[in-house]
Amino acid sequence: MLIGIIGAMNAEINGLKAVMKNCTAEKISSVEYCRGVIGVTECIAAVAGVGKVNAAVCAQTMLLKYKPDMIINIGVAGGLDAELGTGDIAVADSVVEHDMDTTPTGEPAGYIDGLERVYIECDRELSDRLYNAALSIGGLKVKRGVIASGDQFIASEEQRNRIIDTFGAIAAEMEGASIGHVCAMSGVPFGVLRAISDGANGDSPKNFLEFTEQAAKNSIDIILKLTEG
Ligand code: ADE
């Protein structure tokens, strides 16, 4: 069993690399892939860079080169659900590309050509495991639902409300759906777990800088739980 773990930024993955045993690293197309053992689990971890293209390149490379049995995307997100505060956890049941827009040609908002759908379902069993691992940490609110991804940092009520109203999302970030898209194209199970760093509103630029490190640590702690066996 080999689990692929992708984050966008160093803060979202370095804590895992730090505890990885028997680590071997290889750089492909500017991204470093670190393979080793976390807890009792074979893992391959990478920092993809921010945004959907970086994430897709990383996920596709990981699939072709290392053939993981599943991919988990972790990191931070802007919260879209009033119940989720800073550091709390959103686990995706499905993901959506909120900036995919071919509505002028008659398709629904977020429609993905090739997959012929708007929402990409996460692997149910993996999502259950992520949810239960998150609950077992204690002290964090954990919610499941739609996580929305796009090539935009959400920092206004207008952007925020559009994503909530159009897709019913509980969190916004910039990679999860593109990793889901890549995995769905190859039939590989995937899951997305995000810790809230900001409220996807006018305070987000400031809050993101202040709270990303602690929030990212929460998502790393959950992966450490999951991989401990
Ligand atoms: N990741 C963390 N906060 C975010 C936000 N407000 N918008 C997009 N991605 C994020």
Radius of gyration, CA atoms, in whole angstroms: 16 Å
Please write the string of helix (H) and strand (E) elements: EHEEEHEEEHEHEHEH
Residue runs with pLDDT of under 50 for 5 or more positions = none
Number of helices: 6
Structural class: alpha/beta
How many structural domains are formed by the residues? 1
Strand order, sheet with most strands: 5-9-8-6-10
Count of β-strands: 10
How helical, in percent, are the residues? 25-40%
Largest sheet: 5 strands, mixed, barrel
The H-level CATH homologous superfamily, spelled out, is Nucleoside phosphorylase domain
CATH topology: Rossmann fold
Tell me the β content. 25-35%
CATH architecture verdict? 3-Layer(aba) Sandwich
Shape: globular
Bound molecules: adenine
Distance between the termini: 12 Å
CATH class: Alpha Beta
Brief characterization of the structure:
This protein has helices at 10-17, 52-66, 124-137, 157-167, 176-186, 204-227; strands at residues 2-7, 21-28, 31-38, 41-47, 70-79, 89-97, 119-121, 142-149, 169-173, 190-198. The protein is α/β, with parallel strands linked by helices. Strands 5-9-8-6-10 form a 5-stranded mixed barrel, surrounded by 5 helices.
